Amino acid sequence: MIRLVRPAVACLVLSLPSVSLSAQTTPTASVAIERQLATELGLSVGDTIRLATAADSLGWLFTVGAVYEPSADPAEIAKRERHLRLHLADLAWLLRTPDRVDRLSIGLHPGISADSAVSVLNRTAYGYRVYSAEAIASESSQTFLVVSRFHRAIAVITIVASAVFLLCIMLLKVEERRLDAAVMRFVGVRRRTIFLALLLEALLVAGLGSMFGAGLAYLAGAATNAYYRRFFDTGLTFSLITPEIVTFSLVLSLVLGALAGGVAAWRLVQTRPVVLWGRG
Amino acid sequence: MTGLAWSWKSLGRHRIRTALSIAGIAVSSAMLLDMVMLSGGIEQSFTELLLARGYQIRVTPKGTLPFDTEATIDSISGIVQRLRAEPAVAEAGAVLGAALYGRKGDSLVTLFGYGIQPEAQALYRLDSGADLAPDDTAGLLLSSPAARLLSAAVGDTVELVGRLDPQVATAAVRKRLAVRGMVDWVYDYKDQPSVGAVLTVIQGLTGRRTGDQGSLIMVKLSQDSAAASVTAGLRRSFPRLEVNSVADLARQFKQRLVYFRQLSYILGTISLVVTVLLIATLLTITVNQRLAEIATLRAIGISRRTVVGQVVAEGVLLTLIGSALGIALGLITARYLDDILTSFPGLPAAFSFFVPRRGTLTTAAVVLLLTGCVAGVYPGWLAARLPIAATLRAEAT
């Protein structure tokens, strides 16, 4: 059962009317235009516009019947194309291509597998090709898979840079405690106690730092979303910080912090207190 | 001992710390280099691609970019004649792009067809065989993927089919063409099966012969420098058409990929901040650990300027070593990242996002060097304002 027919897609030239309505021989049809286009052209419901298939053709007059908010589509935002919707018959008439469409959407009866229907239809298809909605979704999401792979690669580089930075800072932080460690050793504090104290301190610093970083990331994410939503005039979410991401960052920071702090603390407690004091 | 040797010795005292710092600087520098390449590479690569055959202007249907929609220009041959009559125009050629079918045995394979005017074309480079003559209505050019798909080679005959009619299950138009040559289509994406024939043949196959329709016109000027003024002149002469120079198209393409450019600025800035923080932290702690040494040097007459210079030199040395490693690392990661981004569907195979150039490398190197100097300012200032007597007394007790 064919449930829905998608109208033909075409590039139309839109202009505000400058000739009299008497030039048109058919009744004025209505179109729905997207909100951004309406804003750019200062149009509202009830206004009359002229649509043509070429810049030098006279075209036909249409009435703005509705202004709609387009669904947020990441594939469209960078193109900055503007859309309007016509009844299929009106567009076919305007394009002089009666009974021709670009695509059909087909709804199947419950229980019928989309793949088997695709297979049956493609066996008899001539001049068209049938795809399941899943296949189309997979194909059209290729762009975002590429962007996602790019983001992941950048994330790996960033994590490596952050890890090295964290290791370095933790090492320096522990080394800064040379004199304290020397004093503690002089007064008889055990190596193990000093080691655990330094390790605990490293974990504390790593934990606090990563929590501060998570807060900073939330702020940066909010700023990113606010900026790009305004820039592209869309409701899409560009930066999404999930609990999994925060947990991963915290665990990674703690592990790296413990590792760096542990190594540095171990080296420190193995050094003679006199050397730590700077007299060795 | 020179400042540099002194710095080298100082860094060598704490090898693990120095190695970690250099590793951090190397990764940050690699990221910075990649982002510098990305920010300028998109525009540069696109411009080079458009100018691959030296055609500086594109004329398309009003409100569209080349091959962005299926819109066409009517009576295109007449417009090409008018363009060729312009004094500044050296060559002008019309192109029609459309989906076609090729017969392979009992089945049909989908192809992309280019209708061209062989006397003025900027779409392909001939790999083997012969080029089309302007009046060769029986000849065909194939890309390697198309040849593979059709199992055809130079000298074979291929049947092209256009406008299939699902109602009566038959092809409305078909034409047998002889393969003249194998070509590399400049703007094809990876593995795109494209074929080319003279404009009138493709127009006939796609039902665009009557209206003499074409997708775009490519214009080559006698002088590159005249592109902007000639584009403006052509816009006035052809107000119903979209006339863009390569610079205009690059600007619009850049606008479409604005996300990557902005991302490169943000990540580049973060890399710089991380590098500055890393070097500044390391130098500050080094200075704090060497207070007695610095105070002694000052006490025996070494000037403030020399001490500050030595601290800054240490930062610069760290940056130099880290950056040298970072540039090598950056070039490797850029290739990997480029492989990811160039797998965008529909992107010309010849396009590149990360373009290493001498200018880019120089910019990254200068920025990093400045970063090293800036990072050394605070620890240098700490060393310079050190109270000599108080420090020596404190260190002695």
Walk me through the topology:
The complex is a heterodimer of chains A (280) and B (397).
Chain A (H helix, E strand, L loop, with lengths): L3 E3 L6 E3 L13 E6 H7 L6 E5 L7 E9 L5 H4 L6 E2 L2 H8 L7 E3 L8 H11 L8 H8 L1 H34 L2 H9 L4 H42 L10 H28 L2 H5 L3
Parallel strand pairs in A: 3-5
Antiparallel strand pairs in A: 1-7, 2-4, 3-6, 4-5
Helix pairs in contact in A: 6-8, 6-9, 8-9
Chain B lengths: L2 H11 L1 H36 L6 E5 L14 H9 L4 E16 L2 E10 L7 E6 L9 E4 L1 H7 L6 E9 L4 E16 L8 E5 H8 L9 E6 L5 H11 L3 E5 H11 L1 H32 L1 H9 L4 H38 L16 H18 L1 H8 L3 H9 L1
Parallel strand pairs in B: 3-8, 5-7
Antiparallel strand pairs in B: 1-9, 1-10, 2-3, 2-6, 2-9, 4-7, 5-8, 6-7
Write a structural description:
The complex is a heterodimer of chains A (280) and B (397). Residues 1-9 and 18-25 of chain A have low confidence and may be disordered. Chain A has ten helices and seven strands. Chain A is α+β, with helices and mostly antiparallel strands. Chain A folds into three domains: 4-107, no CATH class; 109-135, no CATH class; 166-277. Chain B has helices spanning 3-13, 15-50, 76-84, 144-150, 199-206, 227-237, 246-256, 258-289, 291-299, 304-341, 358-375, 377-384, 388-396; strands at residues 57-61, 89-104, 107-116, 124-129, 139-142, 157-165, 170-185, 194-198, 216-221, 241-245. Chain B has a six-stranded mixed beta barrel with strand order 2-3-8-5-7-6. The longest helix of chain B has 38 residues, at 304-341. The mean pLDDT of chain B is 86. Chain A binds chain B through residues 10-11, 13, 53-56, 78-80, 125-128, 139, 142-143, 146, 149-150, 153-154, 157-158, 160-161, 164-165, 167-169, 171-172, 175-176, 228, 231, 278, and chain B through 14, 16-17, 20-21, 23-24, 27-28, 30-31, 34, 61-64, 69-71, 74, 164-166, 169-170, 239-241, 255-259, 267, 271, 274, 277-278, 281-282, 285, 288-289, 292, 333, 336-337, 340-341, 343-345.
